Amino acid sequence: MARLFRSILLIFLLLALAALGYALWPRQANLRDFDVGAVAHLETGMWHDYYSHDYKSLASRLYSLYRDVYRFSPADSTRLAYFAGKAAQVFQPTSSRDEAQVALPLLVSYYTLLRDRSGEAFDPDKAAQLELNWWQLRREHVSPKEYGEVVAQVAEELFKVHNEHIEKSAQLRAEMMRYRDDRRDGGMQADDWTHIEKNLTESYSELKTGVRRNPQ
After folding, report:
1. Is 40 a domain residue?
2. CA 78 to chain CA mean position, Å
3. CA 190, 191, 193 angle in degrees (round to 5)?
4. 38 lies in some domain
5. Rounded to an integer, what distance in angstroms lies between the CA atom of residue 142 and that of residue 146?
6. Does pTM surpass 0.70?
7. CA-to-CA distance for 152 and 61, rounded, in angstroms?
8. pLDDT digits (tens, 9 = 90+) for 31-59
9. For residue 69, is it within any domain?
């Protein structure tokens, strides 16, 4: 009986080690080949979560984005979701560029891990600064075209490419941000979120075309 118990315990330990190894084993993700519809759907939900201060749901969608769409490991997906979600959370109550710097270390950590696990060769400090810049620009009453240009610069830094597809993708995202902003304070209806998701799908389709490794 004792021998059987030891055998069962050993099996459970081996299974636990295998599960832990699966979760923690680093693997290279692919930021260029993704399901356009899945990314658009998740981002639409994340916008809703952010503006309703539902950070638990935001973290869950972020995890799904990195694990299910981009194929990061479970451990790396958890870390990326934390860095991205926490950066958004600490940025949200700020009211100046100086205060907004509180989010920068989290964004640097996010982009450093993103670079290390994706095989891309970008500067995480520059990417983080560009990201925070367009977040702040949206609050400074500039046009979508202006902050859309910085959104494009983030993608251009990540993928080291520049073309009209990336520019169009960024402008579409920026226009949808303004669309949401124009309907803040309870003005957003279900049809409005559907409209945003449709346009984000087009945006990410353009991005995928713009960053693919072997353009036709």
Report:
1. yes
2. 12
3. 65
4. yes
5. 6
6. yes
7. 23
8. 999 999 999 999 999 999 999 999 999 99
9. yes
- Chain Cα centroid distance, residue 69: 11
Check residue 214 and report its DSSP letter.
S
Question: What's the total number of domains in the chain?
Answer: 1
Contact 69, 34 (CB under 8 A): yes
216 inside domain:
no
- C-beta separation of 157 from 123 below 8 A: yes
Tokens in use for 104?
């920068």
Token pair for 83: 């860095």
Distances, alpha carbon 162 to alpha carbons 40, 97, 166, 207, in Å: 22, 28, 7, 11
| Nearest-angstrom CA–CA distance, 93 and 89 | 8
C-alpha span between 31 and 208 (Å, rounded):
9
The two structure tokens encoding residue 188: 């957003």
Sole residue written with tokens 């989290």: 106
Q: Which two tokens stand for residue 22?
A: 């699966």
Give the residue from 204, 80, 212, 91 showing the smallest Cα distance to 151: 204
Domain that holds residue 69: 2-211
pLDDT, tens digit, for every residue of 97-152?
Answer: 999 999 999 999 999 999 999 999 999 999 999 999 999 999 998 999 999 999 99
Q: Which tokens is 214 given?
A: 């072997």
How far apart CA 82 and CA 65 sit, in angstroms, is 12
